[in-house]
Amino acid sequence: MSTLSDKAASAKKGAKKFLRRLLFIAVVLSIAAVLFFYYGVYSTGVRAGIVLKVSSKGAVFKTYEGQLDLLSFGAVKSENQLSQTFDFSIYKDDTEIIKVLEEVALSGERVRLRYEEKYISLPWRGNTKYFVVEVERSPTPNIPDKTGSQFPQ
Q1: Which is more confidently placed, 63 or 152?
Q2: How many Å apart are CA 130 and CA 127, to the nearest integer?
Q3: Which of 4, 51, 82, 135 is 20 to 30 Å from 102 at the Cα level?
Q4: 3-class DSSP state for residue 130?
């Protein structure tokens, strides 16, 4: 016959075992959530327009940010002119994309930006949830004017 102290010691061991398992599960789920939000992509897409600016920002974490003018010409029903721009971030190690975006910002070329939307924005990655992964330069269109001649290229 077991005594009351044996039952209490057994319950104490069982409670410790349960708490260890619960703590382990909580740690594993926390790590999985952090990895999911860090690497997970909510959506991908393409936006076209003219790059207005590309800059390096931040006091503690330096990030590359940019702004694209969507050139919607009133298609967006809003009095706010800012609704016609698209703010985006660029990964720090994508030096080729940064270089191309700086070139097209100075030249005024129309571009298509392929981007990934992350679930959350983290201060060391960028100010927005939208990260440019590819830049496609649009060819200059050959639009004839009223006289039938082509615009210079």
Answers
A1: 63
A2: 9
A3: 82
A4: strand
Q: Are 135 and 100 in contact (CB under 8 A)?
A: yes
Same domain (yes/no): 25, 46: no
Residues 47 and 35 in one domain: no
Structural domain boundaries enclosing 57: 42-137
| Statement to judge: residues 71 and 33 lie in one domain | no
pLDDT at 72: 67
User: Tokens 């201060």 map to which residue?
Assistant: 123
Residues 6+ apart with CB under 8 A from 114: 44, 45, 46, 132, 133, 134, 135, 136
Residues 121 and 46 in one domain: yes
What is the helix (H) or strand (E) element at residue 5, kind and residue range?
Answer: helix 4-39
Alpha carbon of residue 88 to chain centroid: 7
Identify whether the C-beta of residue 16 lies closer than 8 Å to the C-beta of residue 9: no
Question: What φ, ψ does residue 22 adopt, rounded to 5°?
Answer: -65, -45
Q: Is the pLDDT confidence value at 143 over 60?
A: no
| The two structure tokens encoding residue 137 | 């330069």
Model pTM score: 0.72
Q: Are 126 and 90 in contact (CB under 8 A)?
A: yes
